[in-house]
Amino acid sequence: MNWRSALAALIALVLASAGASAEPSFSFDATPGKLPKSVVPTRYAVELAPDLQSLSIAGSEVVDVDVREGVARVVLSAVNIEITEASLDGGAKPAQVSLDAAAETATLDFGSVIAPGAHKLRLAFTAKINSFGRGLFFVDYPTEAGTKRMISTQLEPADARRIFPCWDEPVFKATFALTVTVPQNFLAVSNTPVTKEEPVAPDKKRVSFAATPKMSSYLFVLSAGELERITADADGVTVGVVATRGKAEQGRFALENAVKLLGFYNDYFGQKYPLPKLDLIAVPGGFGGAMENWGGITFFESRLLFDPASSADTARRGIFSVLAHEMAHQWFGDLVTTAWWDNLWLNEGFASWMQEKAAERFYPQWKTWLNGYGQKQYGMALDARRTSHPIQQTVIDQSVAMTAFDAITYNKGQAFIRMLENYLGAEAFRDGVRRYMAAHAYSNATTADLWQALEAATGKKVADIAASFTEQEGVPLVIAEAKCEGGAQRLSLRQDRFAVVPASANASVPAKHWQVPVEIGAAGAAQPSKIVLLDGSAEIDAGACGEAVKVNFGDIGYYRVEYGPNARAALVKAFSRLSAEDRVNFLADSWVLVLASRADAASYLGPVDALAPNDRRAVWDQVINAFTQLDRLSRDRAERPALEAYMRARLRPVFDRLGWDGSGSGDDDDTLLRASLIRALGEFGDAGIVTEARRRFANFLKDPKSLQPALLDPVSHVVGITADREAYDALLALARKSTATNERVRYYHAAASAHDATLAGETLSLTLTKELPSTLVGGLISEVAQSGRQPQLAWDFIRKNLDTLGARQGPDFTDQFIPNFMTNFHDLAHADELRQFAPAQATTGGRVTTARALEAIAISDDVRARVLPLVDRFVGEHPARP
Ligand SMILES: [Zn+2]
Q: Which helix (H) or strand (E) holds 572?
């Protein structure tokens, strides 16, 4: 094919195949895990009576089990549960119960061998309702009628065992039939519809739910409280939004989109959604995200509800994205489940990819892939470190499983699946996914099963390409250079490994090898002209001499590109003709090459200098992110004021083009860019922005309608960072009087951003009170450190109040939150403090997170020493334009 051809040509330049996939197909017996597979549950009938005052649960269950080989002991999962009774087949065999707190197991010893075959295991137990978002938790939330309490669950990866004893590993699929006793005025929601409700005491009722299909225990859900529900029909399935009383109508946008998505997914996956109903449940605290429980998805309230009075129109984009992600899991995760947490990426990478695909389908004007470019960038940043891990990784226990929920699993998984779909073709890829769904419905799968289905559907080799991206860590670097031969241009490509690692650790990274599908196109072309499966090095025809050639055309591939001087000069000249995707990709690669000392600061800041103020939001967003990173790393440096003046001068013309009061729909990229610029310019000390933000905030206090919802977040933030006593008190008053979760988050966070040390200290003290739900505590402490620029104050506070905070926030506080918090420091002395901080390293997962944080701090320290002086020099030579 020639260079001008619109058709993509495939040139497979094959050496030996890269370390081919060694992973076998799914097998129940070969699946890793702690529990023996000699006794297998098939059906749970669970009865729970939670007491919302004493925060305890009285429970009992009958589990139908299949004893596969004669054993005297049954081992199942339990943590913080007291088992008061355990018997088999109607009480004939009472068991001795022993609990292993570290292993999170209960062993039931029946004294003599249980005959193989079907048995009924009956257990009675008591468990706890937690203040932190694991297992069954409570949330106290404000309403017009005072504080109310509700309960909800969060069980992934391994917290069903905090509610009832069970085989709490994803491979043990069984049906669950729940009966729960709740106050008479509560609405209780679980995976399936209610089959029966009966009063059991003057003010209590017993609610029974239909049995679920076969599913993994982590997908069980129970939410109950003074809730209300709105519903719609989607092809025979009842879709509902459940929220605290008075708020369900704010779920209308989510409800309408859930109906559309259900139809789209029924078709895409080739399997109809198998439950009679799907509820979307808004929980006003307890956990921060969303969870794909089968038939009952839970969301942190502001991720589901849309309130036109207090939400920017653009907030719908985030709501749609989370909804599309969790609904994709109803198939990819719930119907077909990864056998073990080593394949978590299959669930998360796929759902993260599908959320974008669905947004492109229903809201193409949002340009979701372009504007979401940062997800891949973030995954790549972590994947370029020594502490990266393959997206398929060994997971020995639940504390390590927790660490797998990171940007490498989600974002690299998402980016890799996008690259693979692009390489295989969208229809062929979908056919492979349908095969995979049909073959593994109501069961489990491994990554190898997906590759086999895709190979069967497409006839292309998938496993070898995939293995090089999923079974090894690291980011490929494609090095491209152009030369002129006999009047025609030739492009040479070779691969290396891209890394940003701390020099202080004297660290080198081992070489790796990939099969990289590399797309190449002429600057400004609508289509790529070639796809090269790069396995080593290659040389290809690339148009006329001097023609600008873009590698990683369209920003679809998961790799970095470093251009030689000729190829780079041509691209810089053609920069404005590149698509927005390619401009973002070029800038992002240029920036990290500077961070890796592979390029001079000018190779990034030069093109930024030449950007037009009316360039696309994603392009300026890339610049704002790089500038924010530079600004944070410059804390306490004498050169910071000059750097901030430089950055203000670059960004201010972009803001001046937009102005404060834009017209238009309110759901456009200008609205979002305006908000980002106000925030960034405020942080970099733009006096005009600060003055105007404060003026508008003062007006807003008198007349709440005077400030458009899209400006509420950035204006509050700028008022927060510059707050004096009066502004701080005004922000706190707004947070305290609101019953809307998005408003409470906004104003508490704005208050926590105050640079003033006294006010920062007051925010920290607030995190010890009952005023805040536990969900906000970690975020506010981090905000004091980051936006408030008071990391030492926050760290001293954490150490002083460790026991109180740890008890309330749960086990994640010491082994996840603290190591991540410490990355607010950029010096090796604080890395040493973390290294010596024993509580963070009590679990395997804590040690993993700590190692990652130590490297992040060391990289920051290193970039400060190595890169910031180069930036200073560039800034000195390029003073702010008048
Ligand atoms: Zn997910």
A: helix 565-573
**pLDDT value at residue 5:** 32
The three-class DSSP label of residue 65 is: strand
Cα(172) to centroid(ligand 1), Å: 20
What is the structure's pLDDT at 507? 64
The values of phi and psi at residue 31, to 5°, are -70, 130
pTM: 0.94
Taking only the tens place, the pLDDT of each residue in 497-508 is 999 988 776 667
- Say which residues have a Cβ less than 8 Å from residue 743's Cβ, sequence separation at least 6: 310, 734, 735
* 495 close to 562: Cβ distance less than 8 angstroms: no
* Residues identified as active-site: 326
* Segment (H or E) for 498: strand 488-498
Q: How far is CA 215 from CA 172, 218, 476, 592, 773, in A?
A: 8, 9, 38, 43, 31
78 φ, ψ (degrees, to nearest 5)? -165, 140
- Ligand 1 midpoint to CA 289 (Å): 10
Torsion from C-alpha of 323, 324, 327, 329, nearest 10 degrees: -120
- Category of 80 on φ-ψ map: left (φ > 0), alpha (ψ -120 to 50) or beta: left
658, 664, 676: which is closest to 614 by C-alpha? 658
Given this model, what pLDDT does residue 827 score? 96
Q: How far is the CA of 333 from the centre of ligand 1 (A)?
A: 8
How many residues does the structure list for the chain? 882
Residues of the chain with pLDDT under 50: 1-21, 882
CA-CA distance, 422 to 491, in Å (whole number)?
22
To 5 degrees, how large is the angle CA 803–CA 808–CA 813?
70
User: What was the pLDDT predicted at 17?
Assistant: 35
